[in-house]
Amino acid sequence: MAKPDRLTEYAAVDDIIWQDRKRYLGLPLSFTVYRFDANRFYEKKGFFNTKEEEILLYRVLDVSLKRSLWQKIFGVGTIVLSTADQSTPILEVKNIKNSDRVRRALSNIVEKERDEKRVLGKEMFGASGAFDVLDGHDMDHMIDHPGF
To answer: How far apart are the first and last CA of the chain?
Structure first.
């Protein structure tokens, strides 16, 4: 009798909500693929040597959109994700189609994930590195002197 494979239970993949490639002149001619499901955002780069990055959506601090004149002409845009992730604090999702619609959907899913996990903005603030430059003495000084 064969033992059940427990890895299969943990390696289950959620349904992909959105997927697109980085575009050049509005055409999907690159080997960079972006996608997200209900819990994670994935970026896969490369053809011969591939690199895949995964970001938990509840760790996203800010979602913004940038569109240059050329991007507007070709119907693409760049979504910028500011995260509390150590390896990728800023992720640029470059030259994707329907960028404003994707940004709104991603922002709504991020908020839903943070609500489900009960993660507040103040809990994520320290994770972004805002207080990394302060040592314990400076923090005590700020607490003792509220006008600081």
So the answer is: 69
CB-count exposure of residue 111 (10 Å: 0-12, 13-18, 19+): middle
For residue 132, give the DSSP letter. Answer: T
The whole-model pTM stands at: 0.76
Range of the domain at 76: 13-116
Reported as a single tens digit per residue, the pLDDT across 73-130 is: 999 999 999 999 889 999 999 999 999 999 999 999 999 999 988 876 655 555 555 4
Cβ atoms of 76 and 30 closer than 8 Å:
no
Residue 139 lies in a domain: no
Instruction: Identify the three-state secondary structure at position 103.
Output: helix
